[in-house]
Amino acid sequence: MMDRRQFTGRLAGAFIGATIAKAPFVPRWSSRARRLTLDAARLNAHLKALSAFGANPQGGVSRVAYSEFDKAGRAHVMDLMRGAGLDVGIDFAGNIVGRRRGSDAALKPIVFGSHIDSVPEGGNFDGTVGSLSAVEVAHTLGEQRIVTRHPIEVVVWANEEGGLYGSRAVSGQLTAVELQNRAWSGKTVEEGMAFLGGGPARVGEARRQRGDIAAYLELHIEQGGILERESTNIGIVEGIVGIRQWEVTVTGFSNHAGTTPMDQRQDALLSAAGFVEMVHRVVRAEPGRQVGTVGRIQAFPGAPNVVPGRVVCSLELRDLDSAKIQRLFDAIAGEAKRIGESRGTTFQFRALHENVPAPSDPAIRELIADSAKDLGLTTRRMPSGAGHDAQAMAQLGPMGMIFIPSIGGISHSPKEFS
Question: Model-level pTM?
């Protein structure tokens, strides 16, 4: 049984090995690659130090994108990247990019990445494990004076939790209208990019084309309980679900709660309550792993003595099949219209953003499996029900993801531990 330090040091073999293999996607290893492990104590110290930026009383972090804590945490990580020998800069989307030269200037870079922004009252491992492990890989290669054939890029993506804004800008999926979406910090995406040192007016220049990268690798916590439950060390991600989100506005008529009879009300909140139940029913009616969530709801004017005349809520649908997501949305929109007609209200849907489903690269999956086997780590192939920057980067080149266990399956919580 490995202790935490042994496991932390050994799990990075897939990361390091992928950069040293003679062919980038064929698992041919040098004996020197097999001996390399990370400095687990240093990595864990870096994780602890980063957790101070946005620390909350519950023991986690509230380091939401484009906040002062996010900016300060990013400055700290940039210092760590420079200490690892990386040439560091910020692109127009606000992403931090650290570069390390390879021996063959004609080859495209292998990119490692993740994020450090959190959800409100989040944990200390989501995103940060992958980001700081990637920095540690660069640090280890530098200490061993190893020059890889491919250049290496370590990227800390901006505003992952809000909707993969940084990575979707690079993959060309970010739309101009999304720059006006509001982040948890209160800033618009456009304002947030500028706040982090990006250039939203030139964000299109951050875009890369397919083939501009040799591969993308991301280490991440599972955010579920399968690996821990099965006592498995490594999850090999087969694909990442697509995610579509909408803002839903239900419009009725505000009136006095004491003088408006029950049968004469156009209660927007009553219609919204029916909408929430209906989404649950429609999504469950079809076999599969798809999920649907109404995670945010607000009634207006929000007074106890006024019949709500307007409700704004969210709708999110996830699945590996884009066609299924569209089919579910069409069914939900149709039923919402009927709910509105029966209660004197209307429903409007405004698309917020879309993360397309992304399969991982089969050759990279095999590379991760072989690397884990060499390190004595057990593996399991699995889909990712959570969105990740890797799905945006899959639009540019071969993509792979490595999951490590989340204790108790807990994530997006101060109790998160990996």
Answer: 0.80
